[in-house]
Amino acid sequence: MPDDRDAAVRLRAFDFLTDQRRRFGEASIPRSILERGFDFEGVRVPLIGPQGIFKPAILPELPLTITTAPPVEHRERPYDDGFIDGGFLRYRYRGTDPHHRDNVGLRTAMQRQTPLIYLHGIVQGLYEAAWPVFIVEDHPETLSFVVAIDDQIGAPAAWQLNDPAVLTARRQYVTAVVRQRLHQRGFRQRVLRAYQQCCAICRLRPAAKLVRYLWNLEVRGIIEQRKHRRTGSPDAQQFFSVSKRGSWWQQ
Q: Could you tell me which residues are beta bridge partners of residue 89?
């Protein structure tokens, strides 16, 4: 049955990502691992492709993953995905046609409440994965979906499924936890890459160059997040105080 195959592939994808999280620990997952994916009944199943809404060939109808591209310095992201008031994720349509097959696929996934995987680009080549995620709203007027992240550990109990308010609160909490992790991982990776770009002399006195670098990349983002009442992003002053000790990235 196609539905059984679809469900089996998704469960195998979840298991694959669980294995990768154990393998990489606190580090993010390299894109090459996601491109290689896993084997299912002799067929290779990648988890990421050139487009953000991705359906591997093995699946008959619905996408498996949705991806937000990593930030690139001096270049805007192609889509302004982001967390919104209410605690969930806004994910933009592909293009401007609500009837594009990729947008239709996500709309159908919403109607069937099919679980997906969200891949968030931290920096070039590194991604954080969250699963299962569900499309919970469709807004053609703004060319966007609303995405909720649910708990990996256990499915909602029957009483939670029967109470929309309880299910929404559960997913808001899980999404908030994931959002905090994404902010922290992104901040940490930018710090590490900043140190990698310093010369040998700068490594002896990294604070000034690193603070200037982070001022451009991070502080404006923190200010913008506060404007939108976001939480969970590391505070700039906290970083400035620990960076001088030279041990933050080792924690």
A: 83, 147
